[in-house]
Design a protein that fits this description.
The complex is a heterodimer. Chain A is α+β, with helices and mostly antiparallel strands. In chain A, strands 1, 2, 3, 4, 5, 6, 7, 8, 9, 10 and 11 form an 11-stranded mixed β-sheet that branches. In chain A, strands 14, 15, 16, 23, 28, 30, 33 and 35 form an 8-stranded antiparallel β-sheet that branches. In chain A, helix 1 (3-17) crosses helix 2 (23-35). Chain A is elongated and about 115 Å long. Chain B is an all-alpha fold. In chain B, 79% of the residues lie in helices and 0% in strands. Chain B contains 8 helices and no strands. Chain B has helices spanning 3-28, 31-52, 58-76, 87-101, 107-117, 120-131, 136-143, 147-166. Classes of the chains: A alpha+beta, B mainly alpha. The interface between A and B is large, with 100 and 91 residues.
């Protein structure tokens, strides 16, 4: 091919590339490629080069090699404009079917709806000064690259379009911002940051490590390899230093940040151009005013952000733990269980506990709980005649203490006690002065002697992206036992010496039959004991047991509460 | 898909997307359709990745998926046949580009050097088009040029770059 033919081929290839070739130009290109192997190879090289220009960082690599001041750009573009205006017109190829046909089409082709013309008109109206600003603004926009991927979406509605988002959609750095009217999306960025964004919101994935949040709420979990992840808002910039944090941007542009783990640097976009920056740590929160750029302290709210969701199981977590009291109440650990619901340890059936029962003997059997998928079974522990079975797989509590084999009530999501025989009215139970058994302060009421086993695998299946790594709770005998000392002493003639603090109980936490926590002879005089038991991926069953202590009154008055029982969750690596 | 997998997939896509894109562009010949097909291809790859990993040759796998996307695209673009490669040419090109883009092409590295050899004025056109993602019409507007001159200038710069890149 000679220079002229190459020039013509370049023009045809480029017009086709921009979808601006006329049908006769496409036909001509096809004819050239069909007849000339050299031209065909040339065209393939052309597409390889064009792909590289569009899909690699070749340009910024070359670009950043030289200093490029905005003023230089201004001068250059100005010169370019002048040059092109005064440049001689280019003659079109003579080898075309109609010499009056222009290379550039006079009429628009049938093509997809794009916003070029509208934008073009708008841009044409701006001054060179505006151009300067625009160049400065887009200076950091890289070539089109995937920035993030949609991991999950639930009940979403994208604003002003019928287009929806689906799992696996790739977000490119040059994509327009997306506005969601409703729903939640989980996006993972190229460098590994995992972000959950709640509607109503407007956002754009600006790079592998940057989310632009124009409005709405976002919760970011940032693994060590993604440290430096940024959320930009109209009023601030949050730079992650290895953490979990939530950002909320109000429609006016003011924003707030809650740090849940680790550290985050917050930089306000002050109108006075004075940079204000602060480093926030766990449980700290700040608000940034868009008008003044001021950073103010504000209350930290633990459950403001959705931290996890699964569109298949329709589960949403505003915290990274499952509440076992909620599970006892028939929920899945996220707060949808029922207060006072629990399990009858005589039958293994689920029931609502509305009335007090008396102390009664239990069976020596391990009873499967078939109505609750997360509870494997219940039992009345009594090690007097040997190990006690604590799971459907036959795990055994080898050194279970000897008990009288009796229990009171059952095991339920709540915290109240009453006794008709000892004239104790129904009342809420307390540990360290805090009333438990409520929606905000959940607890499991598990009066001695009783045991309950949770199936960790069943729980894991509901949250496939999360790992259970620890069980935490508080345990103790209710403070309220002291409130009813007189009634207790009057109960039986020979119990006049029974002081509330004489009632003792043990609490055990077992994993697959192995004791991982034991607190013996808890009394009402003791502060609540903190439980922290690590859970490993191979662990299958978690068992909570209360038994009567070493006092001579058996399980009488062993009002044992397991308060705030939580299975802590972390992202599965 | 697990987080580890999606992270791994994104990294592989970042590294290899240009070669898959080049395959698509060679067969559809315009950016608009190539962008859409690349996105569809990436989505399918993302969905299939957990079941297909470990993938010996990520690019070949991507090209295979892209090929079926292109066939489907051609089927639905019959009314727009003037933008398509004719069938004979398409059949002729497919094996060539399939083979070409599964190999790493050292000329891409050369492109970076070629960009630096452009005159400032030429470089600015390329920068506006690709780095700042302006469409030719937008470039014409902001520079106050005719669309004709803008297309001409851009095609000339592409030709210059290609010549440079081909001089191995």
């Amino acid at each position: 091919m000679d220079a002229k033919q190459k020039q013509e081929l370049n023009e045809l290839l480029y017009l086709t590339l921009e979808r601006s070739a006329q049908p006769w130009q496409t036909e001509k290109l096809n004819a050239i490629l069909q007849s000339s192997p050299e031209a065909l190879q040339y065209s393939l090289d052309f597409y390889l080069m064009s792909s590289a220009l569009r899909k690699t960082n070749a340009i910024p690599h070359a670009f950043f090699g030289s200093k490029n001041e905005i003023t230089e750009q201004f001068n250059l573009l100005h010169c370019l404009a002048v040059e092109e205006r005064t440049a001689p017109s280019i003659k079109l190829s003579a080898d075309k079917p109609n010499t009056h046909q222009p290379i550039i089409p006079a009429q628009p082709l049938e093509k997809k709806v794009r916003k070029i013309n509208r934008f073009s008109l708008a841009v044409a109206a701006v001054s060179l000064a505006a151009l300067l600003c625009m160049i400065a603004y887009v200076q950091v926009v890289p070539s089109r690259e995937p920035a993030a991927v949609l991991i999950d979406a639930m009940d979403i509605k994208v604003k002003n379009t019928f287009k929806t988002l689906k799992k696996g959609d790739i977000f490119y750095n040059t994509d327009r911002p997306i506005a969601l009217e409703q729903g939640i999306v989980n996006i993972q960025f190229g460098y590994g940051a995992d972000v959950i964004i709640e509607a109503p919101c407007e956002f754009a994935c600006k790079s592998n490590g940057t989310l632009e949040l124009k409005s709405g709420k976002a919760f970011a979990s940032v693994p060590p390899e993604a440290i430096g992840f940024i959320i930009e808002t109209p009023s601030s910039r949050m730079i992650d230093l290895g953490t979990e944090f939530g950002v909320e941007v109000e429609p006016c542009g003011s924003s707030s940040i809650n740090v849940f783990q680790g550290q985050t640097q917050l930089v306000s976009r002050s109108p006075s151009k004075q940079v204000k920056s602060v480093i926030l740590t766990k449980n700290q929160s700040r608000k940034i005013d868009i008008q003044t750029g001021t950073i103010e302290e504000c209350a930290f709210h633990e459950r403001t952000f959705i931290q996890y969701f699964n569109s298949e199981t329709k589960t949403i977590l505003t915290r990274k733990y499952l509440c076992l009291a909620d599970i006892v109440g028939g929920g899945n650990g996220t707060g949808n269980g029922q207060l006072n619901k629990g399990v009858d340890v005589l039958t293994g059936t689920v029931k609502l506990f509305t009335e007090a029962g008396g102390s009664q003997p239990g069976t020596r059997e391990y009873l499967a709980v078939r109505e609750n998928p997360f509870i494997d079974g219940v039992f009345v522990p009594d090690g007097g005649s040997g190990p006690v079975v604590v799971s459907s797989q036959g795990h055994r509590f080898e050194n279970c203490p000897d008990t009288n084999g009796q229990f009171w009530g059952g095991i339920f999501n709540g915290g109240w006690h009453e006794s008709t025989v000892s004239a104790i009215p129904r009342h809420p139970l307390r540990l360290d002065g805090i009333v438990y058994g409520t929606g905000i302060q959940p607890s499991i009421y598990i009066h001695a002697n009783q045991g309950i086993t949770f199936d960790l695998n069943a729980l894991r299946s509901g949250f496939p992206k999360l790992a259970i790594y620890r069980f935490t709770a508080l345990c103790g005998i209710s403070d309220t036992l002291s409130d009813y000392a007189d009634q207790l002493r009057a109960w039986k003639d020979n119990w006049t010496n029974l002081m509330p603090e004489c009632s003792l109980a043990d609490v055990y936490v077992l994993v697959d039959g192995q004791v991982r926590f034991a607190k013996k002879d808890l009394s009402v005089a003791d502060a609540a004991a903190a439980i922290a038991v690590d859970i490993y991926p191979e662990d299958r069953f978690l068992t909570l047991v209360t038994t009567q202590g070493s006092d001579p009154w058996g399980n009488t008055n062993d009002w044992t509460l397991i308060a705030q029982p939580r299975l802590l969750l972390t992202e599965l690596k | 898909m697990e987080i580890k997998d999606s992270h791994e997939f994104l990294q592989l896509l970042l590294i290899n997307q240009m070669r898959i894109y080049a395959f698509i562009l060679s067969l559809v010949r315009n950016y608009e359709d190539a962008d859409d097909l690349m996105q569809e291809t990436a989505n399918t790859m993302w969905q299939k990745y957990p079941d297909c990993k470990p993938i010996k040759d990520f690019v070949s796998w991507g090209i295979q998926i892209a090929y079926y996307k292109i066939l489907d695209f051609r089927k639905h673009q019959k009314n727009n046949s003037h933008i398509l490669l004719d069938n004979e040419l398409f059949e002729k090109i497919v094996p060539i580009v399939q083979q070409a883009h599964t190999k790493v092409d050292s000329r891409i590295e050369k492109l970076k050097k070629c960009l630096q050899r452009l005159s400032e004025r030429e470089y600015k056109l390329i920068e506006l088009r690709y780095y700042q993602n302006f469409k030719p019409q937008q470039i014409a507007s902001v520079l106050g040029l005719s669309i004709l001159n803008t297309y001409k200038s851009l095609s000339r710069v592409h030709g210059r770059l290609l010549e440079c890149m081909r001089q191995a």
